[in-house]
Design brief:
By secondary structure, the chain is mostly helical. It is built from 19 helices and no strands. Helix 8 runs parallel beside helix 16.
Length: 381
C-alpha cells in the first residue's frame, strides 16, 4: 500500500514528467528506437538548464536571495509598499533565477512576513500577483524560464528580435502589476523578522562566498549568447561544484530535465510520421501565437514550446505565444502550481477562493496581453 501511495503522490507532483514519459514510450512503438534517436535532444538546452539549476541552488544555499529581499523590505511601512516590493522582487529576480525558483524562494517568505505582521488578509491576492509577476518577468530574458532558454537556443534569433518578442509584453505586465497594487487597500504593518541563519552571515562574507557562483553564471550567459560552447562550461561548472558544494547536485530538478528529454523523443518520433507531421505543419504555420497560447492552457507552456517548435518557422511568434500563454489556467505555467501548493498548505480553507481569484486575474492579464500581441504582430507584419 505504501508503494502505491508513494507512486500516487509522485504522479500528482510530477504529472507533466509522467505524461512526457508515457508519450515518449507510446511513440517509440510507432517509430522503433534507432540511431536517429540520438539526434532528437537539444543537448545544449539540457546542459544549460542543469548548470543554471545548480548555480541558483548555490546562491540559495548562501542565503543571498533572502538577504537581498530582507534588505529591500526594511523600507516597507504599509501593506501597499510591502506588496509592491514583493511583487517587484518576483518580477525582476525571475529574469535571472527563473520563475519557479523565484516563487519557491519568495512565496513562503511572503506568507511568513504577513503571518509575523499579524495581518494575513492581503496574502491571497499578493501571492496571485507574485505568481503572475514571476511568470511574466521571466519572459524578459533568455534564461528567465525553460521555454525561453530552449527556444532561444534552437532558433538562432538575434538579441534584438528576442527583445521584440518579449519586452513589450513584459513592460505592459509591469505597468498592470503596479496599477493592481496602487489601487489596492493600504494598511500599516508592524514589521517582520529575518531568520537567525541569515542574520548571522555578514554581507561581506556572503558577497565573497557568492563570487564563484557569479563567475559560473557569467560562463552560462556566455553560452546562452553563443560566445562559447556549452560542453567546456558544463565540465567547468560540474568540477567547480564538486569543489565548492557537491550537495548542490541533489538540488537540480532531474524530473524537469528528463521531461525535456522525453518530449524531445516524442516530438522527434512524431516528425517521422508523415501524416501527423504534415497536419501539424499546416495547422501551426502562421498561427504560432494563437497555438502557443492555446496549447499552453492544456499542457502548460514548456511542453507546448517543445512540441510546437518542431512544426514552426516563426520562433519569435511562438516565444510570445508560450510566454503569454503561461497566464490563464492553473496549469498554463507549472510555476503557478508552486504558489498554489504553498498557499493551500497554509490556508487550506481558502483553496477555492484562491483558484477563483487566480483565474480572474490571470484571464485579465491574458486578455490584455493577447490583444496587445495581436495588434503588435499586425503592425510588424
Amino acid at each position: 500500500m505504501k508503494i502505491f501511495s508513494k507512486l500516487k503522490n509522485f504522479i500528482k507532483k510530477e504529472t507533466v514528467f509522467c505524461v512526457s514519459f508515457i508519450l515518449a514510450l507510446i511513440s517509440s512503438f510507432v517509430v522503433l528506437p534507432d540511431k536517429e534517436y540520438l539526434n532528437y535532444p537539444d543537448y545544449r538546452t539540457i546542459a544549460l538548464l542543469f548548470c543554471l539549476m545548480i548555480i541558483v541552488a548555490g546562491f540559495r544555499s548562501l542565503g543571498v536571495f533572502d538577504r537581498l529581499a530582507a534588505t529591500l523590505l526594511k523600507r516597507a511601512e504599509s501593506t501597499k509598499n510591502l506588496s509592491l516590493m514583493l511583487i517587484m522582487i518576483c518580477f525582476f529576480f525571475s529574469m535571472i533565477i527563473t520563475n519557479d525558483v523565484a516563487l519557491i524562494t519568495f512565496v513562503p517568505f511572503t506568507i511568513r512576513v504577513f503571518q509575523l505582521s499579524g495581518n494575513t488578509r492581503p496574502v491571497l491576492k499578493l501571492v496571485v500577483l507574485e505568481t503572475i509577476a514571476a511568470n511574466l518577468g521571466s519572459m524578459a530574458t533568455p534564461i528567465g524560464n525553460p521555454q525561453n532558454l530552449y527556444l532561444y537556443s534552437i532558433s538562432g534569433i538575434s538579441a534584438g528580435k528576442f527583445a521584440l518578442s518579449v519586452l513589450p509584453y513584459a513592460g505592459i505586465s509591469l505597468i498592470m502589476l503596479i496599477a493592481a497594487v496602487l489601487f489596492s487597500k493600504n494598511e500599516k504593518i508592524c514589521g517582520f523578522t529575518v531568520s537567525d541563519n541569515i542574520k548571522s552571515i555578514s554581507g561581506k562574507r556572503m558577497a565573497i562566498s557568492s563570487l564563484p557562483y557569479i563567475a559560473l553564471l557569467i560562463l552560462c550567459l556566455l553560452v546562452v549568447f553563443r560566445v562559447i560552447g556549452y560542453l567546456p562550461v558544463l565540465i567547468i561548472i560540474a568540477g567547480a561544484v564538486l569543489f565548492l558544494n557537491r550537495s548542490l547536485f541533489r538540488k537540480a530538478d532531474y524530473c524537469l530535465l528528463l521531461t525535456f528529454l522525453f518530449f524531445f523523443i516524442f516530438i522527434g518520433n512524431i516528425k517521422r510520421v508523415p501524416q501527423i507531421s504534415e497536419f501539424l505543419n499546416s495547422a501551426v504555420q502562421g498561427r504560432e501565437l494563437i497555438f502557443g497560447i492555446f496549447a499552453s492552457q492544456i499542457i502548460s507552456n514548456v511542453p507546448a514550446a517543445i512540441l510546437l517548435s518542431g512544426f514552426s518557422a516563426d520562433y519569435s511568434a511562438l516565444m510570445t505565444g508560450v510566454n503569454v500563454g503561461g497566464l490563464g489556467t492553473l496549469i498554463a505555467s507549472l510555476a503557478s502550481l508552486i504558489s498554489y501548493k504553498f498557499f493551500a498548505s497554509e490556508f487550506p480553507k481558502e483553496k477555492g477562493r484562491y483558484l477563483k481569484i487566480f483565474t480572474l486575474w490571470n484571464l485579465l492579464f491574458l486578455a490584455v496581453l493577447t490583444i496587445a500581441a495581436l495588434i503588435f504582430t499586425k503592425i510588424l507584419s
